[in-house]
Protein backbone atom coordinates (compact mmCIF):
# COMPACT_ATOMS: atom_id res chain seq x y z
CA UNK A 1 0.00 0.00 0.00
CA UNK A 2 1.32 3.42 -0.88
CA UNK A 3 0.23 7.00 -0.37
CA UNK A 4 0.86 10.31 -2.05
CA UNK A 5 3.00 12.91 -0.30
CA UNK A 6 2.49 16.50 -1.35
CA UNK A 7 3.35 19.81 0.23
CA UNK A 8 0.83 21.10 2.74
CA UNK A 9 -0.38 24.00 0.56
CA UNK A 10 -1.05 21.85 -2.45
CA UNK A 11 -4.46 20.59 -3.53
CA UNK A 12 -4.19 17.18 -5.23
CA UNK A 13 -6.73 16.23 -7.87
CA UNK A 14 -6.81 12.49 -7.32
CA UNK A 15 -9.75 10.12 -7.76
CA UNK A 16 -8.66 6.73 -6.59
CA UNK A 17 -10.56 3.48 -7.15
CA UNK A 18 -11.26 1.07 -4.35
CA UNK A 19 -12.81 -2.32 -3.72
CA UNK A 20 -15.18 -3.83 -1.21
CA UNK A 21 -13.18 -4.48 1.94
CA UNK A 22 -15.27 -7.53 2.70
CA UNK A 23 -14.37 -9.49 -0.39
CA UNK A 24 -11.05 -8.35 -1.76
CA UNK A 25 -8.07 -6.08 -1.38
CA UNK A 26 -7.98 -2.61 -2.96
CA UNK A 27 -7.92 -2.74 -6.73
CA UNK A 28 -5.12 -0.19 -6.99
CA UNK A 29 -2.29 0.00 -4.47
CA UNK A 30 0.04 2.11 -6.57
CA UNK A 31 0.99 5.71 -6.04
CA UNK A 32 -1.67 8.00 -7.46
CA UNK A 33 0.08 9.35 -10.52
CA UNK A 34 -2.83 11.66 -11.28
CA UNK A 35 -2.07 13.79 -8.24
CA UNK A 36 -0.19 17.01 -8.90
CA UNK A 37 3.06 16.54 -7.00
CA UNK A 38 4.90 19.48 -8.52
CA UNK A 39 5.98 22.42 -6.38
CA UNK A 40 4.98 26.05 -6.78
CA UNK A 41 6.16 29.14 -5.01
CA UNK A 42 3.74 28.62 -2.12
CA UNK A 43 4.27 24.92 -1.59
CA UNK A 44 8.03 25.21 -1.76
CA UNK A 45 8.01 27.18 1.46
CA UNK A 46 6.31 24.36 3.37
CA UNK A 47 8.08 21.40 4.92
CA UNK A 48 5.00 19.58 6.31
CA UNK A 49 3.87 16.60 4.17
CA UNK A 50 0.25 15.88 3.44
CA UNK A 51 -0.81 12.23 3.09
CA UNK A 52 -3.46 11.55 0.49
CA UNK A 53 -4.94 8.10 1.20
CA UNK A 54 -6.59 5.80 -1.26
CA UNK A 55 -10.28 5.07 -1.09
CA UNK A 56 -10.82 1.59 0.36
CA UNK A 57 -14.58 1.62 0.85
CA UNK A 58 -15.97 0.97 -2.62
CA UNK A 59 -17.04 4.59 -3.23
CA UNK A 60 -19.20 4.59 -0.07
CA UNK A 61 -17.87 8.01 0.96
CA UNK A 62 -17.92 9.63 -2.50
CA UNK A 63 -20.56 12.15 -1.40
CA UNK A 64 -18.25 13.59 1.26
CA UNK A 65 -15.21 15.46 0.03
CA UNK A 66 -14.84 18.35 2.48
CA UNK A 67 -16.69 20.26 5.18
CA UNK A 68 -16.75 23.78 6.57
CA UNK A 69 -17.09 22.83 10.24
CA UNK A 70 -18.37 20.08 12.51
CA UNK A 71 -22.03 20.90 11.98
CA UNK A 72 -21.61 20.72 8.22
CA UNK A 73 -19.79 17.40 8.50
CA UNK A 74 -22.41 15.99 10.85
CA UNK A 75 -25.18 16.80 8.39
CA UNK A 76 -23.28 15.21 5.51
CA UNK A 77 -22.59 12.07 7.54
CA UNK A 78 -26.22 11.91 8.66
CA UNK A 79 -27.42 11.97 5.06
CA UNK A 80 -24.92 9.29 4.10
CA UNK A 81 -25.62 6.78 6.89
CA UNK A 82 -29.39 7.11 6.39
CA UNK A 83 -29.19 6.29 2.68
CA UNK A 84 -30.73 2.95 1.58
CA UNK A 85 -30.51 1.38 5.04
CA UNK A 86 -32.02 -2.07 5.49
CA UNK A 87 -34.06 -2.51 8.66
CA UNK A 88 -33.32 -5.70 10.60
CA UNK A 89 -36.11 -5.73 13.16
CA UNK A 90 -34.56 -5.96 16.64
CA UNK A 91 -37.67 -7.69 17.98
CA UNK A 92 -39.04 -9.97 15.30
CA UNK A 93 -36.66 -10.47 12.38
CA UNK A 94 -35.34 -13.93 11.59
CA UNK A 95 -31.91 -12.27 11.67
CA UNK A 96 -32.11 -10.89 15.20
CA UNK A 97 -29.20 -13.11 16.27
CA UNK A 98 -27.60 -13.57 12.85
CA UNK A 99 -26.30 -10.00 12.61
CA UNK A 100 -24.24 -10.23 15.77
CA UNK A 101 -23.32 -13.84 15.07
CA UNK A 102 -21.49 -12.49 12.02
CA UNK A 103 -20.44 -9.04 13.20
CA UNK A 104 -19.14 -10.21 16.59
CA UNK A 105 -17.73 -13.52 15.38
CA UNK A 106 -14.34 -14.14 16.99
CA UNK A 107 -11.30 -13.70 14.81
CA UNK A 108 -10.04 -17.28 15.06
CA UNK A 109 -13.06 -19.41 16.02
CA UNK A 110 -16.07 -18.87 13.76
CA UNK A 111 -18.32 -20.92 16.07
CA UNK A 112 -18.10 -18.27 18.81
CA UNK A 113 -18.73 -14.58 19.43
CA UNK A 114 -16.85 -11.87 21.29
CA UNK A 115 -18.93 -10.29 24.04
CA UNK A 116 -18.64 -6.79 25.42
CA UNK A 117 -18.10 -6.47 29.17
CA UNK A 118 -17.11 -10.14 29.59
CA UNK A 119 -13.84 -12.04 29.11
CA UNK A 120 -15.08 -15.20 27.42
CA UNK A 121 -16.31 -16.29 24.00
CA UNK A 122 -19.65 -18.13 24.05
CA UNK A 123 -20.90 -20.29 21.23
CA UNK A 124 -22.87 -18.38 18.61
CA UNK A 125 -25.80 -20.69 19.24
CA UNK A 126 -25.81 -20.08 23.03
CA UNK A 127 -28.19 -17.15 22.79
CA UNK A 128 -30.22 -15.86 25.69
CA UNK A 129 -33.41 -17.71 26.47
CA UNK A 130 -35.00 -17.24 29.85
CA UNK A 131 -32.38 -17.74 32.56
CA UNK A 132 -30.02 -19.94 30.54
CA UNK A 133 -27.07 -17.53 30.84
CA UNK A 134 -26.76 -17.16 27.08
CA UNK A 135 -25.36 -14.04 25.46
CA UNK A 136 -27.59 -11.04 24.78
CA UNK A 137 -27.51 -7.97 22.54
CA UNK A 138 -26.42 -4.75 24.23
CA UNK A 139 -27.23 -1.22 23.06
CA UNK A 140 -24.18 1.00 23.51
CA UNK A 141 -26.43 4.07 23.48
CA UNK A 142 -28.91 2.70 26.03
CA UNK A 143 -32.49 2.48 24.81
CA UNK A 144 -34.06 4.34 27.69
CA UNK A 145 -31.42 7.11 27.59
CA UNK A 146 -32.30 7.61 23.94
CA UNK A 147 -36.00 7.13 24.64
CA UNK A 148 -36.38 4.53 21.90
CA UNK A 149 -37.25 1.44 23.92
CA UNK A 150 -40.92 2.29 23.36
CA UNK A 151 -42.95 4.64 21.23
CA UNK A 152 -42.50 8.06 22.79
CA UNK A 153 -43.55 11.68 22.45
CA UNK A 154 -42.55 12.96 19.03
CA UNK A 155 -41.71 9.48 17.70
CA UNK A 156 -43.93 6.83 16.18
CA UNK A 157 -43.55 3.20 17.17
CA UNK A 158 -41.81 2.52 13.85
CA UNK A 159 -39.38 5.40 14.36
CA UNK A 160 -38.44 4.01 17.78
CA UNK A 161 -38.05 0.57 16.22
CA UNK A 162 -35.59 1.96 13.67
CA UNK A 163 -33.42 3.44 16.44
CA UNK A 164 -33.71 0.29 18.52
CA UNK A 165 -32.77 -1.91 15.56
CA UNK A 166 -29.56 -0.19 14.43
CA UNK A 167 -26.94 -2.92 14.80
CA UNK A 168 -24.02 -0.50 14.69
CA UNK A 169 -25.25 0.21 18.24
CA UNK A 170 -25.75 -3.46 19.15
CA UNK A 171 -23.08 -5.83 20.42
CA UNK A 172 -23.05 -9.39 21.71
CA UNK A 173 -22.90 -9.06 25.48
CA UNK A 174 -22.71 -11.02 28.68
CA UNK A 175 -26.29 -11.11 29.94
CA UNK A 176 -25.62 -10.46 33.61
CA UNK A 177 -23.34 -7.50 32.88
CA UNK A 178 -25.85 -6.15 30.39
CA UNK A 179 -28.37 -6.13 33.20
CA UNK A 180 -25.84 -4.61 35.60
CA UNK A 181 -25.20 -1.73 33.21
CA UNK A 182 -28.94 -1.33 32.62
CA UNK A 183 -29.42 2.27 31.43
CA UNK A 184 -26.37 3.84 33.06
CA UNK A 185 -24.21 6.27 31.12
CA UNK A 186 -20.95 4.73 29.93
CA UNK A 187 -17.90 6.56 31.26
CA UNK A 188 -15.02 6.47 33.73
CA UNK A 189 -15.92 5.94 37.37
CA UNK A 190 -14.15 7.80 40.17
CA UNK A 191 -14.24 7.85 43.95
CA UNK A 192 -16.16 11.11 44.06
CA UNK A 193 -19.10 9.42 42.32
CA UNK A 194 -19.93 7.29 45.35
CA UNK A 195 -19.45 3.58 46.04
CA UNK A 196 -17.75 1.68 43.21
CA UNK A 197 -18.67 -1.95 42.64
CA UNK A 198 -17.18 -4.62 40.40
CA UNK A 199 -20.05 -6.66 38.90
CA UNK A 200 -19.55 -10.32 37.98
CA UNK A 201 -20.50 -12.00 34.73
CA UNK A 202 -23.25 -14.57 34.18
CA UNK A 203 -21.02 -17.36 35.51
CA UNK A 204 -19.86 -15.58 38.64
CA UNK A 205 -16.46 -14.62 37.25
CA UNK A 206 -14.67 -11.38 38.11
CA UNK A 207 -14.64 -8.77 35.33
CA UNK A 208 -12.95 -5.51 34.42
CA UNK A 209 -16.25 -3.62 34.68
CA UNK A 210 -16.88 -1.01 37.38
CA UNK A 211 -19.99 0.95 38.22
CA UNK A 212 -21.52 3.52 40.51
CA UNK A 213 -25.16 4.43 40.82
CA UNK A 214 -24.81 6.69 37.77
CA UNK A 215 -21.91 5.42 35.61
CA UNK A 216 -20.87 2.09 34.13
CA UNK A 217 -17.24 1.68 33.07
CA UNK A 218 -16.65 -1.18 30.59
CA UNK A 219 -13.28 -2.92 30.14
CA UNK A 220 -10.63 -0.99 28.20
CA UNK A 221 -10.89 -3.43 25.30
CA UNK A 222 -14.48 -2.36 24.66
CA UNK A 223 -14.30 1.37 25.37
CA UNK A 224 -13.25 2.75 21.93
CA UNK A 225 -15.75 0.57 20.07
CA UNK A 226 -18.65 1.52 22.34
CA UNK A 227 -17.74 5.22 22.20
CA UNK A 228 -17.70 5.25 18.39
CA UNK A 229 -21.06 3.43 18.36
CA UNK A 230 -22.57 6.13 20.59
CA UNK A 231 -21.18 8.91 18.39
CA UNK A 232 -22.62 7.11 15.35
CA UNK A 233 -26.10 7.04 16.91
CA UNK A 234 -25.89 10.75 17.73
CA UNK A 235 -24.98 11.36 14.10
CA UNK A 236 -27.49 9.17 12.30
CA UNK A 237 -30.45 10.34 14.39
CA UNK A 238 -30.90 14.10 14.65
CA UNK A 239 -32.72 14.01 17.99
CA UNK A 240 -29.91 12.16 19.82
CA UNK A 241 -26.79 13.85 21.19
CA UNK A 242 -23.78 13.34 23.43
CA UNK A 243 -23.37 15.80 26.30
CA UNK A 244 -20.76 16.49 28.95
CA UNK A 245 -22.81 15.82 32.06
CA UNK A 246 -24.53 12.63 33.15
CA UNK A 247 -27.58 12.21 30.95
CA UNK A 248 -30.91 11.25 32.45
CA UNK A 249 -33.33 8.59 31.29
CA UNK A 250 -35.41 9.70 28.26
CA UNK A 251 -33.28 12.79 27.76
CA UNK A 252 -32.29 11.46 24.33
CA UNK A 253 -28.72 12.19 25.33
CA UNK A 254 -25.76 10.12 26.35
CA UNK A 255 -23.47 11.79 28.85
CA UNK A 256 -19.75 11.70 29.66
CA UNK A 257 -18.64 13.33 26.39
CA UNK A 258 -15.04 13.91 27.51
CA UNK A 259 -14.63 10.28 28.56
CA UNK A 260 -16.04 9.01 25.27
CA UNK A 261 -13.72 11.32 23.32
CA UNK A 262 -10.74 9.99 25.27
CA UNK A 263 -11.81 6.42 24.58
CA UNK A 264 -12.22 7.11 20.86
CA UNK A 265 -8.62 8.32 20.65
CA UNK A 266 -7.60 4.66 20.71
CA UNK A 267 -7.15 2.90 17.37
CA UNK A 268 -9.72 0.67 15.70
CA UNK A 269 -9.05 -3.02 16.31
CA UNK A 270 -9.70 -5.92 13.96
CA UNK A 271 -12.57 -6.92 16.24
CA UNK A 272 -14.22 -3.48 15.87
CA UNK A 273 -13.53 -3.34 12.15
CA UNK A 274 -15.13 -6.78 11.73
CA UNK A 275 -18.23 -5.56 13.57
CA UNK A 276 -18.49 -2.62 11.18
CA UNK A 277 -18.35 -4.69 8.00
CA UNK A 278 -20.54 -7.40 9.52
CA UNK A 279 -23.32 -4.92 10.21
CA UNK A 280 -22.79 -3.37 6.78
CA UNK A 281 -23.45 -6.82 5.26
CA UNK A 282 -26.97 -6.82 6.73
CA UNK A 283 -27.82 -3.16 7.17
CA UNK A 284 -26.13 -1.62 4.11
CA UNK A 285 -24.55 1.32 5.94
CA UNK A 286 -21.25 1.82 7.71
CA UNK A 287 -20.07 3.56 10.87
CA UNK A 288 -17.92 6.46 9.55
CA UNK A 289 -16.18 6.82 12.91
CA UNK A 290 -14.84 3.29 12.57
CA UNK A 291 -13.72 3.83 8.98
CA UNK A 292 -12.23 7.27 9.76
CA UNK A 293 -11.64 7.59 13.53
CA UNK A 294 -10.44 11.21 13.21
CA UNK A 295 -13.95 12.29 12.19
CA UNK A 296 -14.99 12.08 15.86
CA UNK A 297 -12.93 15.14 16.72
CA UNK A 298 -14.40 17.16 13.85
CA UNK A 299 -17.99 16.46 14.93
CA UNK A 300 -17.75 16.15 18.73
CA UNK A 301 -14.24 17.14 19.78
CA UNK A 302 -11.62 19.85 19.54
CA UNK A 303 -11.91 20.37 15.77
CA UNK A 304 -15.61 21.23 15.59
CA UNK A 305 -14.84 24.71 14.25
CA UNK A 306 -12.35 23.49 11.65
CA UNK A 307 -12.84 22.62 8.01
CA UNK A 308 -11.38 19.46 6.55
CA UNK A 309 -11.05 17.05 3.63
CA UNK A 310 -11.83 13.37 3.90
CA UNK A 311 -8.96 12.29 1.68
CA UNK A 312 -6.51 13.72 4.20
CA UNK A 313 -7.77 11.49 7.03
CA UNK A 314 -6.27 8.09 7.66
CA UNK A 315 -8.75 5.26 7.01
CA UNK A 316 -8.73 2.49 9.60
CA UNK A 317 -8.40 0.06 6.68
CA UNK A 318 -4.90 1.41 6.10
CA UNK A 319 -3.91 0.45 9.64
CA UNK A 320 -6.07 -2.59 10.44
CA UNK A 321 -5.86 -4.34 7.08
CA UNK A 322 -2.72 -3.04 5.45
CA UNK A 323 -0.52 -2.63 8.52
CA UNK A 324 0.20 0.98 7.60
CA UNK A 325 1.21 0.01 4.10
CA UNK A 326 3.45 -2.93 5.04
CA UNK A 327 0.97 -5.70 4.13
CA UNK A 328 -1.28 -6.76 1.29
CA UNK A 329 -5.01 -7.18 1.85
CA UNK A 330 -5.06 -10.76 0.55
CA UNK A 331 -2.02 -11.93 2.52
CA UNK A 332 -2.76 -14.50 5.23
CA UNK A 333 -3.19 -13.00 8.69
CA UNK A 334 -4.16 -15.88 10.97
CA UNK A 335 -5.38 -19.46 11.29
CA UNK A 336 -8.98 -20.13 12.36
CA UNK A 337 -11.41 -22.98 13.05
CA UNK A 338 -15.12 -23.59 12.73
CA UNK A 339 -17.58 -26.51 12.94
CA UNK A 340 -15.70 -27.71 16.02
CA UNK A 341 -16.91 -30.70 17.99
CA UNK A 342 -16.63 -29.45 21.55
CA UNK A 343 -17.70 -32.44 23.66
CA UNK A 344 -16.56 -36.06 23.70
CA UNK A 345 -17.45 -38.94 25.93
CA UNK A 346 -14.81 -41.30 27.20
CA UNK A 347 -14.62 -44.01 24.58
CA UNK A 348 -15.15 -41.69 21.60
CA UNK A 349 -12.46 -40.99 19.03
CA UNK A 350 -11.14 -37.70 17.66
CA UNK A 351 -11.67 -37.50 13.88
CA UNK A 352 -9.87 -34.74 11.99
CA UNK A 353 -12.08 -35.14 8.95
CA UNK A 354 -15.34 -34.42 10.78
CA UNK A 355 -14.56 -32.83 14.15
CA UNK A 356 -13.33 -29.43 12.91
CA UNK A 357 -12.62 -27.30 9.87
CA UNK A 358 -9.35 -25.35 9.73
CA UNK A 359 -8.78 -22.41 7.38
CA UNK A 360 -6.74 -19.25 6.97
CA UNK A 361 -8.01 -15.67 7.21
CA UNK A 362 -6.58 -12.83 5.16
CA UNK A 363 -5.61 -9.38 6.36
CA UNK A 364 -8.88 -8.00 4.96
CA UNK A 365 -10.82 -10.52 7.12
CA UNK A 366 -11.92 -12.69 4.22
CA UNK A 367 -11.77 -16.41 4.96
CA UNK A 368 -10.13 -18.89 2.61
CA UNK A 369 -11.26 -22.43 1.81
CA UNK A 370 -10.92 -25.16 4.41
CA UNK A 371 -7.54 -26.85 4.56
CA UNK A 372 -7.26 -30.52 3.70
CA UNK A 373 -6.70 -32.70 6.79
CA UNK A 374 -3.20 -33.43 5.52
CA UNK A 375 -2.39 -29.70 5.71
CA UNK A 376 -2.74 -29.30 9.46
CA UNK A 377 -1.89 -31.15 12.64
CA UNK A 378 -3.78 -31.27 15.93
CA UNK A 379 -2.98 -31.84 19.58
CA UNK A 380 -4.41 -35.34 19.42
CA UNK A 381 -3.62 -37.64 16.52
CA UNK A 382 -6.39 -38.61 14.16
CA UNK A 383 -8.49 -41.45 15.63
CA UNK A 384 -7.17 -40.80 19.14
CA UNK A 385 -9.42 -42.58 21.64
CA UNK A 386 -10.37 -40.55 24.73
CA UNK A 387 -9.81 -42.30 28.05
CA UNK A 388 -10.63 -41.59 31.69
CA UNK A 389 -7.41 -39.63 32.19
CA UNK A 390 -8.63 -37.13 29.59
CA UNK A 391 -11.80 -36.19 31.49
CA UNK A 392 -12.16 -32.44 31.86
CA UNK A 393 -11.70 -29.35 29.69
CA UNK A 394 -8.80 -29.47 27.27
CA UNK A 395 -7.17 -26.81 25.12
CA UNK A 396 -6.69 -28.25 21.65
CA UNK A 397 -4.39 -26.73 19.07
CA UNK A 398 -4.45 -26.90 15.29
CA UNK A 399 -1.24 -26.04 13.44
CA UNK A 400 -0.66 -25.10 9.81
CA UNK A 401 2.86 -24.16 8.80
CA UNK A 402 3.96 -21.63 11.44
CA UNK A 403 0.43 -20.66 12.53
CA UNK A 404 -1.51 -22.05 15.48
CA UNK A 405 -5.07 -21.70 16.71
CA UNK A 406 -6.36 -22.92 20.07
CA UNK A 407 -9.85 -24.07 20.91
CA UNK A 408 -11.48 -25.79 23.87
CA UNK A 409 -13.14 -29.18 24.10
CA UNK A 410 -14.50 -31.10 27.05
CA UNK A 411 -14.16 -34.82 27.64
CA UNK A 412 -16.92 -36.11 29.86
CA UNK A 413 -17.43 -39.39 31.63
CA UNK A 414 -20.16 -41.80 30.66
CA UNK A 415 -21.74 -44.79 32.33
CA UNK A 416 -18.91 -46.94 30.99
CA UNK A 417 -16.21 -44.84 32.63
CA UNK A 418 -18.12 -44.83 35.93
CA UNK A 419 -18.85 -48.56 35.97
CA UNK A 420 -17.78 -50.75 38.88
CA UNK A 421 -15.68 -53.05 36.71
CA UNK A 422 -13.87 -51.80 33.63
CA UNK A 423 -11.26 -53.37 31.42
CA UNK A 424 -9.23 -51.56 28.76
CA UNK A 425 -7.45 -53.93 26.42
CA UNK A 426 -3.64 -53.68 26.23
CA UNK A 427 -0.81 -55.01 24.11
CA UNK A 428 -0.01 -57.73 26.65
CA UNK A 429 -3.51 -58.75 27.73
CA UNK A 430 -4.70 -62.33 28.03
CA UNK A 431 -6.15 -62.27 24.50
CA UNK A 432 -2.68 -62.10 22.98
CA UNK A 433 -1.80 -64.89 20.52
CA UNK A 434 -5.09 -66.75 20.96
CA UNK A 435 -6.44 -68.72 17.99
CA UNK A 436 -9.75 -70.47 17.39
CA UNK A 437 -10.24 -73.78 19.19
CA UNK A 438 -13.15 -76.04 20.03
CA UNK A 439 -13.28 -75.10 23.70
CA UNK A 440 -13.19 -71.71 25.42
CA UNK A 441 -10.03 -70.27 26.91
CA UNK A 442 -10.00 -69.53 30.64
CA UNK A 443 -8.47 -66.07 31.00
CA UNK A 444 -8.22 -63.38 33.65
CA UNK A 445 -8.87 -59.73 32.83
CA UNK A 446 -8.45 -57.10 35.52
CA UNK A 447 -8.72 -59.68 38.30
CA UNK A 448 -11.94 -61.19 36.95
CA UNK A 449 -12.12 -64.67 35.36
CA UNK A 450 -13.64 -65.10 31.90
CA UNK A 451 -14.29 -67.83 29.37
CA UNK A 452 -13.22 -66.64 25.93
CA UNK A 453 -14.27 -68.41 22.72
CA UNK A 454 -13.36 -67.81 19.07
CA UNK A 455 -15.37 -69.61 16.40
CA UNK A 456 -12.61 -69.12 13.80
CA UNK A 457 -9.67 -66.89 12.99
CA UNK A 458 -7.26 -65.57 15.57
CA UNK A 459 -6.51 -62.63 17.84
CA UNK A 460 -4.53 -60.18 15.77
CA UNK A 461 -2.48 -57.06 16.54
CA UNK A 462 -3.01 -54.42 19.22
CA UNK A 463 -3.08 -50.81 17.99
CA UNK A 464 -3.20 -48.25 20.77
CA UNK A 465 -1.95 -45.21 18.82
CA UNK A 466 -4.91 -45.16 16.46
CA UNK A 467 -7.37 -45.89 19.28
CA UNK A 468 -8.24 -49.24 17.75
CA UNK A 469 -7.48 -51.54 20.66
CA UNK A 470 -7.26 -55.28 20.09
CA UNK A 471 -8.01 -56.62 16.62
CA UNK A 472 -9.89 -59.93 16.39
CA UNK A 473 -9.70 -61.65 13.02
CA UNK A 474 -8.67 -60.28 9.64
CA UNK A 475 -10.26 -59.82 6.23
CA UNK A 476 -8.82 -63.15 5.10
CA UNK A 477 -9.40 -64.98 8.36
CA UNK A 478 -12.46 -63.54 10.13
CA UNK A 479 -13.73 -64.70 13.52
CA UNK A 480 -17.37 -65.22 12.45
CA UNK A 481 -18.34 -65.04 16.12
CA UNK A 482 -16.76 -64.86 19.57
CA UNK A 483 -17.95 -64.51 23.12
CA UNK A 484 -16.61 -63.41 26.46
CA UNK A 485 -18.41 -64.72 29.56
CA UNK A 486 -17.61 -64.39 33.25
CA UNK A 487 -16.50 -67.78 34.50
CA UNK A 488 -18.90 -67.51 37.42
CA UNK A 489 -21.82 -65.25 38.38
CA UNK A 490 -20.60 -61.66 38.40
CA UNK A 491 -19.30 -60.57 41.81
CA UNK A 492 -16.91 -57.68 42.43
CA UNK A 493 -16.42 -56.76 46.09
CA UNK A 494 -19.81 -58.23 46.97
CA UNK A 495 -21.64 -56.35 44.22
CA UNK A 496 -23.60 -58.96 42.29
CA UNK A 497 -26.72 -57.13 41.02
CA UNK A 498 -25.78 -56.08 37.48
CA UNK A 499 -27.59 -53.12 35.90
CA UNK A 500 -25.44 -52.20 32.89
CA UNK A 501 -22.87 -53.51 30.41
CA UNK A 502 -20.88 -51.24 28.09
CA UNK A 503 -18.67 -52.06 25.12
CA UNK A 504 -16.43 -49.72 23.10
CA UNK A 505 -15.60 -51.25 19.73
CA UNK A 506 -15.21 -50.61 16.01
CA UNK A 507 -15.13 -52.64 12.81
CA UNK A 508 -13.39 -52.34 9.49
CA UNK A 509 -15.28 -51.05 6.47
CA UNK A 510 -16.94 -54.35 5.55
CA UNK A 511 -16.85 -56.91 8.38
CA UNK A 512 -19.87 -58.77 7.03
CA UNK A 513 -23.48 -58.11 6.12
CA UNK A 514 -24.88 -58.08 9.65
CA UNK A 515 -22.44 -57.74 12.57
CA UNK A 516 -24.36 -57.70 15.85
CA UNK A 517 -23.88 -57.62 19.62
CA UNK A 518 -25.78 -59.83 22.07
CA UNK A 519 -25.48 -59.32 25.82
CA UNK A 520 -26.99 -61.31 28.68
CA UNK A 521 -26.98 -61.48 32.50
CA UNK A 522 -27.83 -65.01 33.61
CA UNK A 523 -31.20 -65.80 32.05
CA UNK A 524 -31.89 -62.17 31.09
CA UNK A 525 -31.16 -61.17 27.47
CA UNK A 526 -30.91 -57.56 26.28
CA UNK A 527 -32.25 -56.56 22.88
CA UNK A 528 -29.69 -57.32 20.19
CA UNK A 529 -27.83 -54.28 18.81
CA UNK A 530 -26.53 -53.93 15.25
CA UNK A 531 -22.92 -52.76 15.15
CA UNK A 532 -21.82 -49.62 13.35
CA UNK A 533 -19.45 -50.43 10.50
CA UNK A 534 -16.66 -48.16 9.34
CA UNK A 535 -12.95 -47.48 9.77
CA UNK A 536 -11.02 -49.26 12.50
CA UNK A 537 -10.67 -46.97 15.49
CA UNK A 538 -13.90 -45.09 14.76
CA UNK A 539 -15.22 -46.34 18.04
CA UNK A 540 -18.82 -46.65 19.14
CA UNK A 541 -20.01 -47.00 22.72
CA UNK A 542 -22.67 -49.73 22.94
CA UNK A 543 -24.73 -49.42 26.12
CA UNK A 544 -26.91 -52.19 27.52
CA UNK A 545 -28.72 -50.69 30.52
CA UNK A 546 -31.60 -51.89 32.65
CA UNK A 547 -34.37 -49.52 33.74
CA UNK A 548 -33.65 -47.64 36.96
CA UNK A 549 -34.05 -49.92 39.96
CA UNK A 550 -33.95 -53.15 37.93
CA UNK A 551 -31.00 -55.55 38.27
CA UNK A 552 -30.16 -59.17 37.42
CA UNK A 553 -27.64 -61.64 38.77
CA UNK A 554 -25.66 -64.37 37.03
CA UNK A 555 -22.91 -64.77 34.48
CA UNK A 556 -22.40 -61.82 32.14
CA UNK A 557 -21.92 -62.80 28.51
CA UNK A 558 -20.93 -60.57 25.57
CA UNK A 559 -21.23 -62.10 22.10
CA UNK A 560 -20.06 -60.67 18.78
CA UNK A 561 -21.33 -62.36 15.60
CA UNK A 562 -21.72 -61.75 11.89
CA UNK A 563 -18.00 -61.12 11.26
CA UNK A 564 -17.75 -63.15 8.08
CA UNK A 565 -15.54 -60.83 6.03
CA UNK A 566 -13.51 -58.54 8.30
CA UNK A 567 -12.16 -57.69 11.70
CA UNK A 568 -13.64 -56.66 15.06
CA UNK A 569 -11.70 -54.10 17.09
CA UNK A 570 -12.39 -54.14 20.82
CA UNK A 571 -11.14 -51.17 22.87
CA UNK A 572 -12.74 -51.71 26.27
CA UNK A 573 -15.77 -53.07 28.09
CA UNK A 574 -17.33 -52.42 31.48
CA UNK A 575 -19.88 -53.93 33.84
CA UNK A 576 -21.73 -52.05 36.54
CA UNK A 577 -23.34 -53.70 39.57
CA UNK A 578 -24.63 -52.86 43.01
CA UNK A 579 -24.75 -54.89 46.18
Low-confidence stretches: 1-46
What value does the average pLDDT take? 89
Radius of gyration: 33 Å
Instruction: Count every beta strand, where a strand is a DSSP E run of 2 or more residues.
Output: 30
Percentage of β-strand residues: 25-35%
What does this structure look like?
It is a single chain. The chain is α+β, with helices and mostly antiparallel strands and 579 residues long. The chain folds into four domains: 1-68 and 307-329, no CATH class; 87-288, no CATH class; 332-412, Immunoglobulin-like (Sandwich), CATH 2.60.40; 421-578, Galactose-binding domain-like (Jelly Rolls, Sandwich), CATH 2.60.120. 16% of the residues lie in helices and 25% in strands. It contains twelve helices and 30 strands. Strands 19, 20, 23, 25, 26, 27 and 29 form a seven-stranded antiparallel β-sheet that branches. β19 (441-445) and β20 (448-454) form a beta hairpin.
Amino acid sequence: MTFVITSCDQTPSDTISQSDTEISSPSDTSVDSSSDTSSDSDSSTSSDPVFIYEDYYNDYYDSIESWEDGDDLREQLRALVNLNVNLVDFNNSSNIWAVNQLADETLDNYDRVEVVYGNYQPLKTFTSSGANGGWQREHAFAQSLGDFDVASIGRTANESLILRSDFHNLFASDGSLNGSRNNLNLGNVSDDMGAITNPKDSFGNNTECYKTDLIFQPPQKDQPMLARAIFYMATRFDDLDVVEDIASVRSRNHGMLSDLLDWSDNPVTRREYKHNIGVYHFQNNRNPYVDFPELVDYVFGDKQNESGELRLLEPSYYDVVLGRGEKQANDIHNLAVKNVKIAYEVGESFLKASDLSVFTVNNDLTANSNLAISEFTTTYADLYHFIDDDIGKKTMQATHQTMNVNYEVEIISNASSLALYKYVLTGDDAFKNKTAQSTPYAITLGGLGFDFFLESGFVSIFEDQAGTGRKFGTNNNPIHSMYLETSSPFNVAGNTAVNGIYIVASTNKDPGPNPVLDVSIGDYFFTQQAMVTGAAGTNTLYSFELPEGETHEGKVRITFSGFTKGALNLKQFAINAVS
